[in-house]
Amino acid sequence: MKLDLRKSSLQLFSRQLVRLKYVQHIQNDLDKENTHKFSHKINYLNQTYVFHLVAYWQDFIESLVKRKFSDIKSGSGEHVLDDVLNLHVDNQLKRFNTPNTENIDQLFKDTLGLIKITNSWETAEFSKSEAKKYLEQILNSRHQIAHKGSTSKELSYASNFDDMNFIFKLAVLLQSAVDKHDV
């Protein structure tokens, strides 16, 4: 059995999420000071948190695809179509945007042949449709922030932390589902 010493995509994602704590540390620091326009500053920090959370989520998904594809290639030896396959996966990753349920399913289908990978989001804690709805709310907030400069969702320290925990749960489920498949 081959020993793999690389960090998993989930471990790398977790490390990125830990960095988000600095946005919340800044919020705590501002809260201790008598700060001019405090609520505006907190609002921008909350938006920054959402923006980075979604960016890290998309990066995790792309990393997961690259890692699984690399594992498949290394286990199958050289093939005459390796360059074509590499180009295909690279092109699919370049076209991947808005890491919602449909786009995630399409990416995993087109690159690894995994059908409806987000069906793995069915748990005792939430259904796939609840997971999809919650994720869509987070993505919609990010979209509004990116294109309008604000979001209709009430953002707070607590809601951002809840969103991060939810996305991490999806990442754990996705990583597990991909690891179980021998493509």
Number of helical elements: 7
Strand content: under 5%
Outline the biggest β-sheet: none
Order of helices and strands: HHHHHHH
User: How many angstroms does the end-to-end distance come to?
Assistant: 18 Å
Taken together, the total number of domains comes to: 1
Shape, please? Answer: elongated
Number of strands: 0
Query: Compute the gyration radius: what is it?
Result: 19 Å
Helix content: over 70%
- Which class do the helix and strand fractions yield? mainly alpha
| Mean pLDDT rating | 91
Uncertain regions spanning at least 5 consecutive residues: none
Explain what this protein looks like in three dimensions.
The structure is a single chain. This protein is an all-alpha fold and 183 residues long. It has one domain (9-180). 73% of the residues lie in helices and 0% in strands. The chain contains seven helices and no strands. The longest helix is centred in the first third of the chain and has 39 residues, at 38-76.
Furnish the topology, listing elements before pairings.
Blueprint: H1 9-19, H2 21-32, H3 38-76, H4 82-95, H5 101-112, H6 128-148, H7 157-180
Helix pairs in contact: 1-3, 1-7, 2-3, 3-5, 3-6, 3-7, 6-7
